[in-house]
Amino acid sequence: MSPHSPPPRCKNVLITGCSSGIGLRAAEILRVRGYNLITTVRKPQDKERLEQQGFTVVLLDLADEHSVARAFDEVMRLFNGRLDGLFNNAAYGQPGAVEDLSRAALREQFETNVLGTQQLTNLAIAVMRQQGFGRVVYNSSVLGLVSLAYRGAYNASKYAIEGLADTLRLELQGSGVDISLIEPGPITSRFRANAFAKYQEHINKNNSAHQPIYQAMEQRLKKTGPAAPFTLPPDAVVAKCLHAFESRRPKIRYYVTFPTYLFASLKRLLPHRALDWVLRKVSDSEKRPGRR
Fold first, then answer.
1. Bridge-partner residues for 139, per DSSP?
2. Annotated catalytic sites, by residue?
3. Could you tell me the pLDDT band of residue 192, with boundaries at 50, 70 and 90?
4. Residue 81 per-residue DSSP state
5. What pLDDT sits at residue 1?
6. Pick among 3.40.190.10, 3.40.50.720, 3.40.50.300, 3.40.50.1820: CATH of 12-287
7. What is the DSSP letter of 100?
8. Predicted confidence band at 4 (pLDDT cuts at 50, 70, 90)?
């Protein structure tokens, strides 16, 4: 097998959330390696831009169950009924203290990050079961392993994805369908810019007990460039995705960035209250004025 081509059984791959960041970089790298790709975006202008770059693009809004169904039908038509790999990359983060999150804000977070993602995955699994082969890769987060303050909606959505993926792995034993989780820490992307837009949409800081803290949060979310130590480029995530697609025995979990390795180890080793102390220290460091 050529080092620049996918294994014979993993050729047709669907990647969600390809307008920028990890999804776009995954599409660029997998195309070079010879995969047959379909990418998805939410906005028509992004679709046009990616098509100009030579990608096959399908419009998909994970928050809309009808959009998910239509998009999957189109993907299967374009792939002539075969789907070998799915990279569940599309997601966003809703910042804010848990007590400031409305039901609508939580619903939106889960519609995209959990419900739409799993609806798409279930459709893919039905096809993969018939084939007797398939690879599903969820792009989770270090925040699916541990929680940080003021990220409660996102924390919860990634914990949910982890639970679904772990359960699927048990249920799909012997089917030929493998489930993997990638758990990145800080990665260079538009994640903070998108999160800031959701913060402005859903959080009323003027009526919040956390108002003083939100000022520092706003500075961090608006900062250009890396806002946290140990930030890696999207290629670090794509490398793990490639292993999940190309390895004879893909891993269950792929850690990316030093913080993920660190917090995963601390979660195993520390008592709950000691881990809480560490996580509070991390969150407290973000509250200080001028911290970005």
1. 182
2. 154
3. confident
4. T
5. 46
6. 3.40.50.720
7. G
8. low
